[in-house]
């Protein structure tokens, strides 16, 4: 009996000792991890910087006058010299010769001498995954975006804020950002290409989703890669009934011919023409011109996103260049931590094994864009921004340059992101040109963008919905965003409490263990 009691006592003591040490060790590991994450700026208790910025912005001046400015109206390839443009309450009120237009005394004067005033840019393919990205778009002259993956509204989605809520806050003036147009959640078939895509295998379920998206207030229906022809047709029919354009990919089982015939409004990434996985044309190469004409006749727009796929499967040296490209300093440490993982996951999806993937896909995309352009088929400016290493706002200027390299003139490239973007969105009556009565989304440049499209990045200031932001203020905002990633003193120190607690617990546990050992030893001697 005595032997049994001692054995039972020692087992219980050892188990308690093990659990105590395990918990203390776990506390130490968690404390060290939190200490690293908080001091690196990866883990923060603060809301995104854009909310703080929005609260601090002063009221917009209700009356602004651009004087002695050269206007690039984007209604044709021309420049109107020495103009005065008066903006009142967010709307372009007057445009006229500087010597003839009377500037109201109370107006905020913006000197446009030697500068060029054009419409703000539209990025027609973005993913709003981080609220702070909205500052990056505006700072780069992007005053409107088309978000291409809406929140389901049914569950928490990592990296996907509720874009409808953001849009409402922006419309109400409580949140700073570009005007948002958005699709609903992507509609996918089996097998799902994306883990966050909702799968629709029956026409009935697809029709219900279209009606639900309409009721929620989404602007477009987005289709994805693996929809069956039957479900795709059901989506088209339901979208027509609900007066919602269908946009997105060309489903593999549907094919380009059926998409062109079915009335889909836009095709993204040249899907249906080019297979980015195998880096081959899907349509016969000797029929590129024929399909370009079919595209024009079907009045289908292509958002070609030339900046997207050439970023994939880069060499180690290429990846290092991506990590240090302009704009990365304004991205959060958390994004920088996860970007390599998402980049690799995306690149691994492409089956082409060659190291020349970026060059091959870029060449194929340029070839089809040239064919579309020569056929006068519709091309829209879009970047797929917020994918790994595709920096919102900054990448749109790369896209403009790449469109020109593919054969568009500077005017045509800019038209794809101003006049034509507004036309495709169904809001040309609201914006897309510098003309009276239009929304005051404007971009003031230091050089003529029609001479060199790269001049669109030489920004002197941006006006978004009538709020004038000179370059100095935009840079101050960007600096504030960068500074917001620095952890506060409290964030740096609070994980130390866990480490101190773990250390104290270890000391107490050690002393208690010694005491029990001594006690058990004395009992054994008795």
Could you characterize what this model shows?
- This protein has 526 residues and is an alpha/beta fold.
- The protein is built from 16 helices and 20 strands.
- The strands form five sheets. Strands 1, 2, 3, 4, 5, 18, 19 and 20 form an eight-stranded mixed sheet that branches. The chain has a five-stranded parallel sheet with strand order 11-12-13-16-17, sandwiched between helices.
- Strand 6 (121-126), helix 3 and strand 7 (142-147) form a beta-alpha-beta unit.
- 41% of the residues are buried.
List its salient traits:
526 residues; alpha/beta; eight-stranded mixed beta sheet; five-stranded parallel beta sheet; 16 helices
Summarize the structure.
This protein has 526 residues and is an alpha/beta fold. The protein contains 16 helices and 20 strands. Helices cover 43% and strands 16% of the residues.
């Amino acid at each position: 009996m005595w032997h049994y009691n001692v054995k039972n006592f020692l087992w219980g003591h050892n188990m308690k000792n093990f659990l105590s040490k395990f918990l203390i060790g776990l506390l130490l590991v968690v404390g060290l991890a939190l200490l690293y994450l908080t001091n690196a700026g990866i883990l923060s208790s603060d809301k995104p910087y854009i909310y703080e910025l929005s609260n601090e912005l002063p009221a917009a001046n209700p009356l602004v006058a651009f004087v002695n400015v050269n206007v690039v109206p984007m209604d044709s390839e021309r420049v109107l010299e020495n103009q005065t443009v008066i903006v009142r309450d967010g709307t372009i009120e007057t445009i006229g010769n500087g010597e003839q237009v009377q500037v109201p005394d109370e107006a905020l004067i913006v000197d446009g001498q030697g500068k060029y005033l054009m419409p703000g840019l539209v990025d027609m393919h973005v993913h709003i995954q981080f609220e702070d990205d909205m500052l990056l778009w505006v700072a780069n002259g992007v005053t409107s975006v088309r978000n291409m993956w809406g929140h389901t509204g049914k569950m928490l989605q990592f990296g996907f804020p509720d874009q409808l809520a953001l849009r409402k806050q922006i419309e109400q003036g409580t949140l700073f950002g570009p005007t948002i147009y958005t699709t609903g959640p992507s509609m996918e078939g089996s097998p799902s290409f994306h883990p966050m895509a909702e799968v629709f295998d029956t026409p009935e379920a697809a029709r219900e989703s279209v009606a639900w998206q309409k009721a929620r207030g989404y602007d477009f229906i987005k289709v994805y890669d693996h929809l069956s022809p039957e479900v795709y047709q059901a989506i088209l029919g339901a979208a027509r009934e609900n007066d919602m354009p269908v946009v997105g990919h060309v489903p593999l089982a549907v094919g380009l011919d059926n998409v062109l015939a079915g009335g889909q409004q836009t095709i993204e990434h040249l899907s249906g023409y080019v297979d980015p996985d195998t880096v081959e044309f899907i349509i016969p190469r000797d029929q590129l011109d024929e399909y370009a004409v079919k595209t024009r006749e079907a009045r289908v727009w292509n958002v070609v996103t030339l900046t997207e796929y050439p970023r994939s499967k880069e060499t180690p040296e290429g990846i290092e260049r991506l990590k240090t490209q302009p704009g990365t300093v304004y991205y959060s440490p958390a994004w920088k931590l996860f970007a390599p993982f998402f980049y690799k996951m995306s690149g691994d999806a492409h089956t082409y094994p060659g190291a020349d993937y970026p060059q091959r896909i870029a060449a194929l995309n340029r070839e089809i864009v040239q064919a579309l352009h020569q056929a006068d088929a519709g091309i829209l400016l879009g970047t797929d921004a917020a994918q790994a290493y595709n920096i919102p706002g900054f990448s749109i200027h790369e896209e403009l340059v790449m469109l020109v390299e593919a054969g568009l003139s500077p005017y045509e490239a800019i038209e794809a992101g101003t006049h034509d973007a507004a036309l495709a969105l169904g809001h040309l009556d609201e914006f897309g040109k510098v003309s009276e009565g239009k929304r005051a989304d404007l971009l003031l440049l230091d050089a003529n963008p029609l001479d060199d499209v790269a001049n669109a990045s030489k920004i002197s200031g941006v006006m978004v919905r009538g709020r004038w932001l000179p370059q100095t203020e935009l840079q101050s905002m960007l600096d504030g965003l960068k500074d917001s990633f620095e952890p506060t003193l409290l964030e740096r120190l609070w994980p130390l409490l866990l480490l101190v607690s773990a250390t104290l617990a270890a000391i107490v546990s050690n002393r208690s263990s010694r005491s029990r050992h001594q006690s058990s030893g004395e009992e054994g001697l008795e």
